[in-house]
Structures are given as C-alpha cells and as structure tokens.
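Chapter summary example.
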Amino acid sequence: MSAAWKDLAKSNDTQGKARKWFGDLLWIAFPSTNELELCQKASRALGVSVRTVKNWLSCQNDAPLSVVTKVMTVAGAEIIFQKIEASK
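The structure predicted for these 88 residues follows.
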C-alpha cells in the first residue's frame, strides 16, 4: 500500500501560497508606508509581538485561525472604508 497522499489542490506549495495570501491580507488590513509600520500597527491590534507579524509577512509561520479571522474582518472593513472615501 502506498503512503503517498492524493493532492486534491493540485499544488506543490499550498502552505506557502496560504502564508503569502495572509501576508498580503495584512497589508490590506493595516495600510502602511513600510513593513515596520505595518508590524507595529498589526501587533497592537492583534495582541502579538512585532516579530510575530514580521514572521507572518516573511511567510515563516502560519497565523492561528483566530488571528486570520480578525485580519479578514479588518481587511473587509478597510476595503469598505476605502470605497466610501473614494466616492466622496
């Protein structure tokens, strides 16, 4: 019997793509002019260290689902606010 897993996503780097997606989402949720500013904003809002955010941005670690959910919520609100500001 083979120990190989069936790759339903047909992807060799699902984890890397998910980490990149989350890093991009952080930029949407916490608009900043540079990475340090982003790390500081996100760390305060999410209750984690600046280093933790930096690791997420560099795709070194996965964020817990509770944090991903919070960032998705903030990013969604940020997109809505940007649309409201653009229509003025």
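To summarize the output: The chain has four helices and no strands.
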